[in-house]
Structures are given as structure tokens and as C-alpha cells.
## 1
Amino acid sequence: MSEPEALTYASYLHLRELLALQRPRSEPPEHDETLFIIVHQAYELWFKLLLHEFEKICDDFRQDHLYGAIATFKRNRMIMKVMVEQVDIVETLTPMSFNSFRDRLETASGFQSVQFRELEFLLGYKRPQMLKFYQPGTPGYERLIRRLHEPSVVDAFYAFLGQHGVTIPAELRDRDVTLPTEPNETVEEGLLRLYKTHPDLEILFELMTDFDEGFQEWRYRHIKLVERSIGSKHGTGGSLGVEFLKKSLFHPIFPDLWAIRHKL
Ligand code: HEM
């Protein structure tokens, strides 16, 4: 029997496959299309990691692992910062350069990113109307349906708060998890009390707020990127473009953490 090949950097990371995945569609190739492809692929990898990390946070919350949740929120907030910074690279594409291959994207758009929508659903921003942009029966569609029907990070957060003496009203405990997160005054009262009495929980709540702010910052930077690249043109995904994106601009993931700040 022949010896199994020794593991190498390239074989461990499947680099042959990974580096064969950047395939510009422009003919003759437009120089900047490579950047466009690599940036989007990098974002998809970050989305994948965030999904992985937020699943862990859900488990941490349910099992009351405060330090685990703190460590992972710290990581996710750093990932978010890198994701926001990556927009700077895309902004080195000029509108004319982008236009040189934009037609080749046909109707493809970040709008169709299954992982981005999964992330929104997992974070509790459930917009079932978005499902109509995905093809039923495809693995991506099935993943989205599963995420829609699963409790979100916010539902797991309620479970965590319940273990720390916060009253979670029955309408939240038994809620229809396919609906988006709504702010709740009883939860806010409990959060306020914990903020003032438990410095360790305060650290967690601030990290959650950091992540939330980072996610909104990404939306803002993406909108500005879109505005400077295509102005008032419609998106390749068929939406109104900037006008559509503005609707979710200031949408908070943890509305209760924002609602109490003037009382702290
Ligand atoms: C020149 C660069 C870019 C332009 C012009 C652009 C344009 C747009 C437009 C117009 C939309 C609205 C949907 C549509 O009609 O297509 C959209 C959505 C989206 N784009 Fe981009 N985009 C760019 C770069 C990026 C990058 C680098 C990412 C990173 C993954 C990204 C991810 C997304 C996502 C996730 C959505 C859906 C947002 C939502 O539904 O709230 N885009 N983009």
C-alpha cells in the first residue's frame, strides 16, 4: 500500500479548488472583475463564519455560558469591523470600471445571497417576503425555510435573560418564531436592572450593541458604495437599488438594548 500523502498547507486548505473559483465573465477580461469576484467570495466566507459563530452563541445563551457568549461576541464584532473595512477596497472600483462588466452580471445580485439572508433570519430580522427571490426546491431555499422556522439569537437571548431573573412575558416565550424581533418593555426593565447591578453582563450587552452598530454600519457603507457606483439606477437584482436598501438602514438587531440607553 502506498503511503498517504503528507498534509500540506495547500492540501489542508484545498487551495487548488479555492483558487480555481475566480472566473471573470468579461470577454476580453476586464481587469477589475477579479477584484469584484474575490471581494464577494471573501464576504461569503465571512458570512459563513458568522453563521457558525452565532449558532454557538445561541447554545451559549441557552446553557447560560456567559463567558463563552462574551468571547464569541467579541470575535463577531471584529469580523464585522473587517467586513465594513472591505468596502474600502470595493470603492477603488470607479463607476466606469464597474460598468465595463456590469452587464455580464445579468440579474445576479448580492440580493440573492442565501447566507446573508440566513444571517438576517438567525439574528431575528425575519422578512419572509424575501423568500420569493429564491428558487423553491433548491438547497439554499430549504436552508432559508429552516432558518425562518428556527428560534433566533434574540430568542436564545430571552432564554439567557430568563436565567438571570428577567421576566420574559408569555407572548415572547410562546411567540411565532417566524416573525421578526419586536421591542418589549418588560424585557427592557429587566435589562436595565441587570445593566446597573451586574458589570459582567454589562460587558456582554455592550459587545452585543457593538455588533449591532457594526451591522448597521455595513448597511450604510454598502448603500454609499451602491450610490457612488450606480447612482439612482435599479439593481441587477431588480430592486429600486438605493431606495430599497435604505429601508433596512437603521434596523436594529437588539432593539431592547437601544431602547434603554437614555435611562442608563
Ligand atoms: C459595486 C459594488 C456593488 C453594487 C453596485 C451593489 C449593488 C446592490 C444593489 C443595487 C442591491 C439591491 C438589490 C438589487 O436590486 O440588486 C444590493 C443588494 C445587496 N448587496 Fe450589493 N452591491 C455591490 C457590492 C456588494 C458587496 C461587495 C457585497 C458583499 C457581499 C454586497 C452584498 C449585497 C447584499 C447582501 C445585498 C442584499 C441587501 C438587503 O437585502 O438588505 N454588495 N447590492
## 2
Amino acid sequence: MAANPFSSRSHLKVGKRTFTYFALPALEKAGLGTLSRLPYSIRVLLEQALRNHDDYVVSTKDVENIAAWGPKTAGQVEIPFLPGRVVLQDFTGVPCVVDLAAMRAAMQRLGGDAAKINPLVPCDLVIDHSVQVDAFATSTAEQENLKLEFERNGERYEFLKWGQQSLTNFRVVPPGMGIVHQVNLEYLASGVLTKQDGKDTLAYPDTVVGTDSHTTMINGLGVLGWGVGGIEAEAVMLGQPTYMLLPEVVGMELSGTLPEGATATDLVLTVTQLLRKHGVVNKFVEFYGTGVASMSLADRATIANMAPEYGATMGFFPVDAETCRFLQKSGRDAEQVALVEAYYKAQGLFWTPDAPVPEFSSTLKLDLATVVPSLAGPKRPQDRVPLTAMQKEFRTGLSKDVKDRGFGLFGDQLMAKATIADDSKAVIAHGAVVIAAITSCTNTSNPSVMLGAGLLAKKAAARGLSRKPWVKTSLAPGSRVVTDYLQKAGLMQALEQVGFHVVGYGCTTCIGNSGPLPAAISQAIKDGNLVASAVLSGNRNFEGRVNPDVKANYLASPPLVVAYALAGTVDIDLDKEPLGFDDDGKPVFLREIWPTQQEIADAIASSMSPEAFRKQYGTVDQGPPPWRKITAKKSALFAFDGGSTYIQEPPFFTTMGRAVGTIAPILGARALAVLGDSVTTDHISPAGNIKKDSPAGRYLLEHGVQPADFNQYGARRGNDRVMTRGTFANIRLRNFLVQQEGGLTKHLPSNETMAIYDASMKYQQEGTPLCVLAGKEYGTGSSRDWAAKGTFLLGVKFVLAESYERIHRSNLVGMGVLPLEFLPGQTRDSLGLSGHEVFDVAIDDTVQPRQQLTVTAIHPETGKVTTIQTQCRIDTPVEVDYYRNGGILQTVLRKLLGPAKPVATKAAKAPVAKTTPAAKAKPVAKAKPEAKTTPAAKKPTAKPVAKKAVAKKPAPKKPVAKQAAKKAAPAKKGKVAAKAKGKPAPKPVAKKAVAKKPVAKKPAGKPAKKGKR
Ligand code: SF4
């Protein structure tokens, strides 16, 4: 801990307590500029740098860089971020804990102390992602679903109990208690964190990273935080900083108030559309203006939650009077609330409407009075549809081209209908709502929309309306506080009357755990080839996300979810057509039963209290009876069970040595998949159903697991065997190598079509490294560490895409997979790449962040050579180290192990020297300047290296580059490429490069050896 950087160490008296803090105003006195011009979010980053200043991890320059933030310098400077705590959900949290257990095992194998592996910052894991909606529309739904959840997840839950007992600084919120971000908002977040610093109690802003992209919700409470990959979160848990480029900050000024009839959900869909259009990817968004001052904290949290949908790193609401009011109303201790107010005021971080507006990189405005009731869909959250235009938009979408996010129907297909073969004998058509789900912390954390749904249900029930029989209805609160206030407001019964019984306390439909549709309904959809729809109060609606039977997914407020369950179709104009008819045969229109703002405000006032929060959270760690029954032993090492199909020791460290290796070229790679734009992490690593005939399904069957017990991919993230088989197995993934949907590819050069996993195994047996070619926004969607881990375990050495989603790019580096980017204006199509080529990447140990790297693509049949300059998306020097070490975890493990002892170094190097002469090849570094400065066409980069190396000393397994070289010799290839560009053949350069580079003796596709990447 810094002693007194910039003479900033100060004291703050709050009531009878005295705290130490690092005062930001001291930086102004030290001449670092006027801090009030900085966005509040940047000032929070500045505080953490000041506090952690040690001139090692955080330098004086880091502090100065943050203080010097300006619209023009943003995006250029890398800074360390040391968040105060970590939150995990179980889908992504289980593999984090599995990795900690595997690191403990590796630590012991390598001669270190296993017990050193613990979270070093407070870490909370909320088990919320595993509950699925099997039972619904019955008073026993919650208990039935909870029972099934424990049956399906017993092994994972036993493992997490081991973690709870054996790891320090690690808390678990058991299943059936709530959703991570809502629990964070209502309970875990404290506004100001404290810890002992010698005799002093240090106070500092609550900051957090989480293994879920919607961690951003907590920014509604003024807590700076966002989602990171599981591997980054593990590094933070282990005391490492996470690194980021000091971001641009977009200021969004809100004014006015929401009009009657509009909800917080309508507001956030509007904000999402505006910010998407503005362009906020990789940027902070900060809200200000009179509209913020009058906005409830719950509404702010709803807006902050959907930052991933508008593409920002996070959307920040600075701490103000409303923050303190919320902390008090949600049952936080009065002394803590006083500390929050005093601390932020002392730091100049307490926002008021008349405070000076900071400088922003850019700004935009929204008058809340212009917000109208809306939905968003049918395939993307930013495609907002005003309620009044819904029917027209849906009908237009039916015949629109698929590439324009339509459904591509024509002629008679548009008129299709099907009869449900159950007692109802109902006839459904396109637009039939088969799922209506009040789900997702985005909305369940907001009492105004939850009570609004209850009030609408009450009025509908009073008129005799209920859900249509084909609608699968569900209510999944994000905490038990919600049920408490719904009951106190007398609305729970009304929701049940129209079909919305509590199905569980967790993510459910929001994460794709909507459960199967009743068989007759599923069959009717198939029979009619119908575009069935879901209406959900979630935040994501990618194809295949919500349910495999549902193609059109609309995000909407909870009251609208209830309304569409009553209507039974989205093919309806709710302005003109009734939702149904009452007992007297009179039509019931939506406007008649829509709750007023006053009714909602009255319901909030009468049903919510701090005591209810304290009561519900007072016992949150105990969990439901099945959790309490689980027994788990405390032990330093977890006893991995080889027979488990849920928890296995991942092979990330099994071949790791203490010594760090060197970075070598990637030679002879084949494309495992060739993908288009907006490939999501769900396409790469699906969280949903495991198909029986998929590689993962076959693996489970071989291990005695029946299809009924397959569970979801998300639930099996503790087992690398399942997850690797599931990588790229999404039924909606389109791989251009095979021109069809599903996790298939073409093995080359055999041209056999097979599952991507099977092809990967074949390639790995052949010693062929792999790559993925992709379009824009590769890896968009929820953070998902298995999207990177699975990619790595499939043998993919690099991805070449037009652009990346922030977290996924960083996760690829964190797993030792090289992310490369086409230069602006270039694409796979513009370069004429089919994916049938053999690829070399000219990278070596001198690689620099964001350096241009040459990729050579040779078509083995035509001999055509394409030389591509690419942007290396290893963005920072620290990431270079991660890549050199083989990943973040290996880097951390080596740090905790300490310097390699002489004996260990010898042991690590000896086998490398035998099998990979490149490890000793210092001259590799010399070749780099040529790669950087020599035009690609003049230098056939790695290909001659392969030939020379192979000719001089054959590697144990041939690189594919050698096979390609037989068909297109280096000199000839150089000539071809040079001729294509009208330049002379580059033989001399190529020869020189060959002479200096023995690197290719080790094919890049081979498994990493000790001390070698
Ligand atoms: S409810 Fe949805 S947004 Fe919230 S944590 Fe669960 S999956 Fe993420």
C-alpha cells in the first residue's frame, strides 16, 4: 500500500469513526490539473491508481496519465485497474473455481504452496444461472424447478460448497435466492469499501468486476464496474490488475420525466437504440442532467444494466442524494450510508444537478418525455419497435430477407397455421406468443415495472382474462424481496390468476433456460413452420438464445409481457384490437388496464421497506433446504473425480513448467471455421441445450448420462471435455466452409464434412494448427470464458477477424490465442480468401502491442499466395507477457511460484532443447524488423522458414506448411505474390530469413511443451 503518494493520505471523521483515505484534491495541489473537469468515472479510476500507487504495478506516470485524461488522449494510454471486489455467477464462476482448484494442484506439482491460491480480494459467487423453467403456471412450479435444479447440478453444487469452505475470501449465495446483479445492487455493494491498513481503516470507492457482462448494472449505484472474462476475473481474484485503455467517455444528458404509460424498460430500449447509433463500443457512458436528478435509482440500474446491449464498457451514474436514499431504503446500515455520503463529498465525487458538467469525448441528449412504450426485436436488442408499430413491423419482417433480420417467408408460407394436438385444439399462426417471461435482473430489480405488471394483471384478472393456453408463462424474480413486496401489495395472487406463478429465483429465460415447450405446441410450430415468438423482459434476443422453437424474440417491460400473454400473439394492434373479452363479452383494451404512474407509486410506498430487505438478506447464505443438506469437506486440494461429467481438472497446466518460453511463428494453419459478422460468444460456446447427436451429446451418452440429464452447456462449464466438444456447436452457427447451419466444418484437404470438434481432433492428430476467420464484432454478446478456452483447446492458434468484442478479444489473449484484425477496408471477401488456404503468421518473441503482422495464405491447389498485413490485437505489453506465458493463469501461477530455481530451470529447459530447438534460437528476434518493415509481397515470411527448417532437421510431425510448400515452392510463391502486385520476386530476402530462422522446426500446431508456447 502506498505510504503517502502526492501527500494525499488524509483522514475523514464520520460519526465516531475515523477513516484514512487518499484525497483526490491533493492531486490538484500537486499540479495535476483541475479534477472537476474529469468525468466522475475517470476520477474513480484516478482514486484507485492513487491508492494503489507503488511505482511497480501502479506508477506515478499511471496516476498522471489518468489525471491528464482528455477527449483527445482517451483510448491511447494503458492503465492498470485494481477493482475492490469480484462477483461471479455460477455458469462462469464454477470454471473460475475449477481453475483455482487446478492451479492449487499445479502449484503443488511445481513445488509451491497450494494454499497460496485464494481470492485476494473479496469474491462473491451467486448461484443463479442454473434454474430452468420446466414447471410453470402452477403453484408448485418453484419447488418442482428447484428440485430438478438440484438433481441436475448436485456435483457442481458440492464442488462450490468445497470452495466455500476451503477457499478464503470467498462467499457463496446459494441457489434459489436471487440473481447476481440484483443481489449485488440490493445487498453486496456497499458504496464505500473499507479494510485495515496497519492501524488505520482505509476507505475507498466500491469498485467491482464480474464474470457476467451485465455486471454493469451496479454503475446505477455509482459503483464503477463491468464484466470481464472468467480468466481476467481469476487474475483479479489473485491480486493482479486488469489492464485497460483509458477510455473515451460519452456524456448523455437526460432531461424531463417519463410520460404516463412509458416505463423504465421503454426508456432503456430507447437509450440502447440511441447509444448504439452514436457508437459507444469500448467507451464509458456517463449520465447527467436534470432527468438524472429526478430518476429513481432502480431506473438508473435498469439503464446501467443494458450497457452491453448499447455496446459500452459501462453506463455510469455518479453517487448522489438518490444513491444514499436507495442505500438506506434497501436496508443498509445507517453508519455505512453516512460514510458513503461523507466520503464522496470529501473527494468531490458527490454529484448534484448544479455541479459543473465534466468534459466528455462527445455528448448526446434525451428528453425523457419523448419515450414511448416499446419492444425490441425480433433478433437484436437495439432494434426498438414502438408498440403502435408492432403488428406492422412483425408482418413486414416475415417476408424480409434473413440477412436483413427478417424470416424470408413468401407466398403460402405467410399464411401458415397449425392446430395444437392437445385438449385446447387451438389454432396458432405466425406471431403466436409461446413464451411470455417476466425475467432478467434488468427489470426484476425495478419495483416500478414489477408492480406495474402486478397491477395490470390485477385489472386483467378482474375482467376475467388469463393467458392463452399456448403461452408458457413465467415469473422469475431477481430476489426474494420482489415476492415480498408483490405479496404485500396484494398483487402476487393476481399474477398467478393470469398464469404468472413464480418459477424460481434466477436467470431462467434471460439466459436461455426457458425449458422445453409443451410437446404439442413444439410440434405445431414445426408442423406449420411457424415464426413463433417470445416476449420477455430480458436484454438479449439473439436467434437461438431464448428457445430453439422460437424465432422472433421481443424484449419488453413486464407489464407488456403480461399483456402479450393475454393476447397470445404479437400479430396484433393493441391500440385498436382488444386483448380479449370479459365475462360479459365486452372487449378489454390494453389502455383500460394499463396502470397509472400514481398507482405504481402508491404500490411502491405501501409495500416496500428497509426491514423487508434486511429480513430477506439476513439469511441469504443459508439457502434452501437442499443446499443445507449438502456436505463437503474442507481440504487444500480438491479431489477431482475422473468419473464426473460436471467437474474435471482442465489440462491448462498439465504440461506447464516454471520457466517462460518464447513466442514462435504459426505455420501451416488450416481454417477450422470461416464465419460472418456478429458471431456471438453463444455461437462460439453455446450455453443452452446439448444435442444428443452432437460431440458433447455423444460424450455424455458414452459416460452413461441419459439425454434427459444432459443439462445445459452452461451447467457443464466445469468439465472441459464437454465444453471443448460444445465449442462452435451452436445450431445457428453458419460456417461458410460448409454453407450450412450447425457446428459443422470441412476437414482439409480431405474435404470431409464433420463436426467441428471431430475435425479439430483430426487436425491435432495430424499436427496441424488451426485458425478461425471471421467478420465484424467477433465474440459479441455475454462474456464467456469458454468461448476462448474452448477455442484454445480445439487447437486454434489465431483468429483473424474484422473486429472484436472487447472482452472476447482479451479472453483470447488470456488463453494464449492470437487475435488478429484485418486492416481497415479489408475483409475475407475483399482479399478473396475462401478458407481453403494454408496460413502462416510471422510472429516472434519481439512482438509489440498492436504491431502489424504478416499473414501468408497459400491456396494448396492453385498455389495462389495472398499476403495480408494484419493488426495484432495483443493490445498491451502485459498482454504480450500473457501471450508469451501461454495465458493469464500461467503468468499468475509463475509469479506466485517465484523465480524458477536453477534445478527447476534445467529440468524445464532440457526437454525443450531436445524437441524444440527454437527455444534456444535467439536470432528469431532479429527477424522481426523485417516482418514489420518489409512489404508483404516482398517477403514470403514464414513459408521459406518452414521449408528450410524441415529440410535441415525434420520436426517430429510435419507442419502443414511443408505440405503446402511441396505444391508451391517459396521462391515461386514469392514470385506469384510479387507478380500480382507488380513487384520483383523477393528471393534474396526470403533466403536471408530462412538462414536466420530455425523456428519452424517446431510446428505451431503441436501441444505446448514445458517452458515453450
Ligand atoms: S438475469 Fe439475465 S442479465 Fe441478469 S445475470 Fe441473469 S442472464 Fe445476466
